[in-house]
Amino acid sequence: MSRWSDGYIVDIAYLSGWYRQQSPAMLALACLLNGAEVSMPAGDEPVHVLELGCGQGYGALLLAASNPTWRITAVDFNPAHIAAARAWAAEARLDNVVFIEADLATLAEDPAARDIPQADFVSLHGVWTWVSPAVQAGIVRLLRAKVRAGGVVHVSYNVLPSWGPRLGMQRLIHDTGARLADRSDRQVHEGLAFARSLAAAGAQHLDPNGATGQFLEQFAQLPVSYLAHELMNGHWKPCFMSDVASAFADAKLEWVGSSNLIENFPGLTLTEPQIALHQRFDDPLVRELIKDMCIDRALRHDVFVRGVRRMNPAQRDAALMDIDIGLTILPEELPTEAAIPAGKVQLNQSFYRPVVDAMADGPKRVSDLLQLERSQGRKDNPAELLGILVGLAFAEPAVRPASGPGNAAMRFNQVVLRRLLRTENIDRPAGAASLRMGTGLTLTLFDMMVADQVRQGNTDTAQLATAMRLPVDRHDAIDRAKRFRVPVLRAAGIV
Ligand SMILES: C[S@@+](CC[C@H](N)C(=O)[O-])C[C@H]1O[C@@H](n2cnc3c(N)ncnc32)[C@H](O)[C@@H]1O
What we know:
The chain has 495 residues and is α/β, with parallel strands linked by helices.
């Protein structure tokens, strides 16, 4: 372990990925749904986004490419991460993103922080419960200095009680792996193998039929660079949501909701008896503790605001009506029933089918969707429409609904293909940048390749397969991508 890393692993790079919960438009929507007044990023208005612990910078690069008038500042202390991120930025010719190599434990007091402007949106994805208390304290000091009044902060972290039964598994993998190998990817590999051997030898805590044993098996399938960063850090420590709220209060940050939008709706997250118990409390932090007992998800995506301005329900609904959303599926892919944390929800087809049909060729305003004559159902509930369509990931908020494909977004998407295809599986998901949406859409590298060929005018399947230089015949998959993904990407302005 390097002396400068304070227990965080720095000998292998973290994997590159895009997470929709980090998008400023999603964060603004989470605030509005919870009645907190925040401007939805729109058009060419300047926005400053700060990402802390940015890894190799994929999210920061994608946001910069999707929003050329925004300024993105991204910080990480691992020089290998910063070097990779700067190389991507140079190759995609993105000049609105700055990568700073700095330690979050001390950046607030570092002269380098002077050049960081006050941020409208900050994101810390996968950092908080992986770093030492000293780094957490430095993060809070930085947030106190750099979040503008009214600014929004996203933080994701490993949450208790969900992680409680798995604490022993992590400790076992960490401590055995560290003794069986040297480099952290090998350590996590050895630690996992040892834990599985112990499970096979009948260790009761790792019983393959129990929750921890099943989790161990799921972990064994994940990429090693993810696992090393998840399990091998010296200070990894899941926490309760109220612990984060209490730490962030020192930066005058108040919790408003979740950027996993569905979790803002008790009716979609909890069962009726659970809601009755949940509603006995007014304190949002106690309500969240109850929610964390009811839905067993390991990672929270919380949204905080520095200086919350509360709207009344009419103001909130008016703000929600003004939002544009675009589909991430074909209209015909809308299911009749969808899984939600509370079980299943039926999607009223006579209401939702005309709504998604109207969005087939591009984003539409919520108020227009609710006024569609052929759609039958409640026309006065924009929150429910957004909760179902965006919350269940059938749609995303659209920042520039009328714009064409952006040059920077196209350059970034090509760099993604050039770089990731060298080392990664073609069926791996990645984020594609969109100027129209102002965010990324998640798709496989394979689908991204097909879309890129179609964008260049190459639509014939056999020619496309030749241009993609596929080692095996995947004509059917190309046809599927042309049929199901390309129209969605065209509506999102990516093709
Ligand atoms: C699990 S990774 C998440 C990376 C990125 N946010 C993502 O989701 O892809 C955590 C990141 O925090 C960075 N990090 C850890 N401790 C840090 C510190 N003290 N100062 C700055 N960055 C740090 C690591 O180098 C790593 O890139």
